[in-house]
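Re: that chain you flagged

S.,

Sorry for the slow reply, it's been a week of failed gels. I finally had a moment to sit down with the sequence you sent. For the record, here it is as I used it:
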Amino acid sequence: MTGKTIVFDFGEVLFRTSAEELYRDRFRKQGRSEEELQHFLTSIFPDRERSHSNAGNLQDLIEEKARLHPEWADEIRAFGTEGEFPKFVRNIIPGMMDVLEELEQKGYRIVGLTNWHSDTYDILAGAFPEIMKHFDKVVVSGKIGMRKPDPEIFRHAQKEFGNPEASEVYYFDDKQRNTEAAQKTVGWKSFVFKGEETVRNALALTPKPF
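Prediction finished late last night. Pasting the structure tokens below so you have them in one place:
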């Protein structure tokens, strides 16, 4: 393949997400305290379990967790596909819609590589068609049973993307361990995402308007 291939992570690159904000809204409506919220988020349903995204479906993990903590079952299930999961995605990262449109106008191939559960990825894709229409292909951890920064997921993605020339692949992720693994494993030009300026500077796009 020739031409630039642009690889985007999703969470905190295209979409701002926050389980804490979702649950804070919910707990406040129920009259629960901040102390109860932090106990729930750190001891009952911590991030390491909510984000175990190479395990397949989030809903399966939620049901298992709800059985272990029946007194918190309603709150645990609120994060699921049949609950309030769409509220986990708070908004599109500012400026990234314009970036995607500019990349498409330049004829660059846009693909995705994300640690995301299989079932909730389907919800995400359905909720944001204006984002997803720009993507030629997306590799999702929950659909293939691998997770960044495992080197194998980068090798898998390289093949899925048609083995583009590594020097023509630009990868943007908010976690340095992922960018380092991609650079080491498949040789992609990798950048720790700090905002739309990261992409604009790396690809010499139109400067961000004031």
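What I noticed first: The chain has two domains: 5-16+91-203, 18-88.

Talk soon,
D.
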